[in-house]
Structure formats: structure tokens, C-alpha cells
Amino acid sequence: MSRKIQCPECRSTNFEAVSSSKKPLSLGKGIAGGILLGPVGAVGGAIIGNKGKTTFVCHDCGNTWKIKL
């Protein structure tokens, strides 16, 4: 199932991604992985949990918004 991205203001699909932010590591997911799977799980949880947000700008109305992909 794919999620259709559109401008939250005008519902246009005429936009582009202008930046992406990544968190360095996810402490919470690293701890959870460590508890469940030991040291390997801690490293995997910390790395996998570092999803950031992407900033988009609409070419039709000029709105900017961030979403987690």
C-alpha cells in the first residue's frame, strides 16, 4: 500500500522535496532492541530508529510542510 503525498493546503501533487533531516541515533529504540535482542539489537534499534522528516514545498500555493517518510 503506497501513501499518496499531496499538499495539505491545496491538495496539489505539484511539489518537491527541499530538505531531509535525520536524527543521529534513536536512543529509545536502541534500548528496546538491547532489552529484546542484546547488544546486536541495541545497535540495530538505534540505527533503524533514526528516521527524520522531509520538508516539501508546493509549487502551486507555496505552502511548506514536513512529513516522516
Summed up:
This protein is of the alpha+beta class.
Describe the structure.
- This protein is α+β, with helices and mostly antiparallel strands.
- It is 30% helix and 25% strand.
- It has two helices and three strands.
- Strands 1-2-3 form a three-stranded antiparallel β-sheet, with no helix packed on it.
- The protein is elongated.
- The protein starts with 14 loop residues before the first strand and ends with a strand.
* Uncertain regions spanning at least 5 consecutive residues: none
Please state the average pLDDT score.
Answer: 72
What gyration radius follows from the Cα positions, in whole Å?
16 Å
As a percent range, the share of strand residues is: 15-25%
Oligomeric state, counting identical vs distinct chains: single chain
* Biggest sheet details: 3 strands, antiparallel
Overall 3D geometry?
A: elongated
Q: Give the tally of β-strands.
A: 3
From the N-terminal CA to the C-terminal CA, the straight-line distance is 14 Å
| Widest sheet, order of strands | 1-2-3
Q: What helical percentage do the residues reach?
A: 25-40%
